[in-house]
Design a protein that fits this description.
A: 114 residues; mainly beta; 11 strands; 0% helix; B: mainly beta
């Protein structure tokens, strides 16, 4: 079974802090994704990566950056956290070697910025 | 750009009843994915449909993709409290691996 893990289930930070959210997958997937999920807005794609050291902006990249130094790990960075970044953050991974784009999700990190 | 609309937005059913959730796309679907999300947790992959008219089942959940590949339905037979959660449909945007998602349908099952 595919396993996607995220470093924290719950996180509380203060405005202006630098925040790192880590995601690790154990299935050698090429693709990794970061989403945020907010009531009424659904899942919105922040950034994604097709390969090590490659990154692409999603629909809402402002205020975020990412890092993918190793294939299994994809980090989301909030350079200076703000209250409007309080949200549920979900990481996902998928493979390019299958005929489907099925994404497998981690358990999520609920981030609160005070 | 492609959009997915789910209906209903929320649903409350009595245990044992059947229910259907719909997902409608503004464009032809190249791949349609159904996920379930328990409250405050990540998404669990349920099923994927690709061919027009395709139907898949897992336990008491059946998903169908219409012939025109613009609408999918998720049907739960004899619902149980364990079916409660948020059901989301996702679609391949045909731009290389990205999915777009519907807003989700929140299902509550009353014992």
């Amino acid at each position: 079974d595919v396993k996607v893990t995220q470093s924290s289930r719950y996180l509380v930070k203060r405005t202006g802090e630098k925040v790192f959210l880590e995601c690790v997958q154990d299935m050698d997937h090429e693709n990794m994704f970061w989403y945020r999920q907010d009531p009424g807005l659904g899942l919105r794609l922040i950034y994604f990566s097709y390969d090590v050291k490659m990154k692409e902006k999603g629909d809402i990249p402002e205020g975020y950056s990412v890092s993918r130094e190793k294939k299994e790990r994809f980090s989301l960075i909030l350079e200076s956290a703000s209250t409007n970044q309080t949200s549920m953050y979900l990481c996902a991974s998928s493979s390019t070697t299958t005929f489907t784009d099925t994404q497998y999700f981690g358990p999520g990190t609920r981030l609160t910025v005070l | 750009s492609q959009e997915l609309e789910q209906s209903p937005q929320s649903l409350i059913v009595q245990e044992g009843k059947n229910l259907t959730i719909n997902c409608t796309s503004s464009k032809t679907l190249y791949g349609l994915y159904w996920y379930k999300q328990k409250y405050g947790e990540g998404l669990i992959f349920l099923m994927m449909l690709q061919k027009g008219g395709e139907e898949k089942s897992h336990e008491k959940i059946t998903a169908k993709l219409d012939e025109k590949k613009q609408q999918s339905s998720l049907h739960i037979t004899a619902s149980q409290p364990s079916h409660a959660g948020i059901y989301l449909c996702g679609a391949d945007d045909n731009q290389g691996g990205k999915l777009i998602f519907g807003q989700g349908t929140e299902l509550s099952v009353k014992p």
